[in-house]
Amino acid sequence: MKIRVAERxxxxxxxxxxxxxxxxxxxxxxxxxxxxxxxxxxxxxxRDSGLPVLVACDPAIAGFALCGQFRGGxxxxxxxxxxxxxxxxxxxxxxxxxxxxxxxxxxxxKDIHSLIAGVSSAxxxxxxxxxxxxxxxxxxxxxxxxxxxxxxxxxxxxxxL
Length: 161
Known about the structure:
By secondary structure, the chain is of the alpha+beta class. Helix content is 32%, strand content 34%. The chain is globular, with a radius of gyration of 15 Å.
């Protein structure tokens, strides 16, 4: 498995991983699928920010990870929230750990102090994954996400780098 910086041409593969999660699960509260154009712009913007989208290849793209400022304003500039997703066939093989290690290393090089994971309470495997790699639950926001006619909590987990 190789981890590399995403290229604009990877937008389709990233959409193929992200959109089923948006469309079919409560792991994200978003219900608007990502277009290839949106993802090409995201890849370019992250690269310009110095914190690019990373992809795990085995040999095809099997997952991705990215981060961005947790909240707006200069006071939050060293706290990032991240997103990580793997194709179903890639889960449980260590790819997520390797992607997060690479993302965390890039964040450290940019003097980022901590990373935040915002995980749906419907995504217990996401919560357990983050705990297993050193994230601690710091907050639970009750019933802030609504999808498929149900309310879900948002669990915030944090890791100091």
